[in-house]
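Quick review question:
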């Protein structure tokens, strides 16, 4: 379960809160409307990348300026990233713009992100992106792996 949900308070783990629900939603929408499926998925992956970048850039910008993080700002940043992700994906679909084929590079990016979220949960790189600011640990701490 930890591979698909946050296991600590690091920024990387919080990106999972956007990534995995979006992935499930994208697959559901693709199954529901295959007529525009490939292009819709490509557009949604672009929106997801924008949302993930907004979280990363927004968090490090405001916490760097203030010197600490704020829970209300984190929540607003997350809500904004969800809106950006969803609205960007829906915009092209509603207007039927562009090619409706699935772009291989964007599918590859999605698969690399999926593998990265799972891999770095168990084997994180020891940089601030992966560090839990409360416990100063990385990834799943050993206490969570005991039965």
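Suggested answer, residue by residue:
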């Amino acid at each position: 379960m930890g591979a698909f949900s946050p296991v600590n308070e690091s920024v990387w783990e919080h990106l999972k809160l956007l990534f995995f629900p979006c992935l499930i939603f994208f697959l559901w929408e693709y199954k529901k409307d295959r007529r525009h499926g490939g292009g819709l998925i490509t557009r949604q992956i672009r929106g997801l990348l924008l949302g993930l970048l907004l979280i990363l850039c927004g968090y490090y910008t405001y916490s760097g300026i203030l010197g600490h993080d704020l829970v209300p700002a984190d929540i607003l940043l997350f809500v904004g990233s969800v809106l950006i992700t969803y609205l960007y994906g829906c915009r092209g679909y509603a207007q039927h713009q562009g090619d409706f084929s699935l772009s291989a590079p964007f599918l590859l990016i999605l698969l690399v992100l999926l593998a990265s979220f799972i891999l770095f949960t168990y084997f994180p790189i020891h940089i601030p992106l992966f560090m839990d600011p409360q416990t100063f640990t990385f990834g799943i701490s050993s206490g969570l792996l005991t039965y």
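Why it works: The radius of gyration is 17 Å. Residues 14-96 form one domain.
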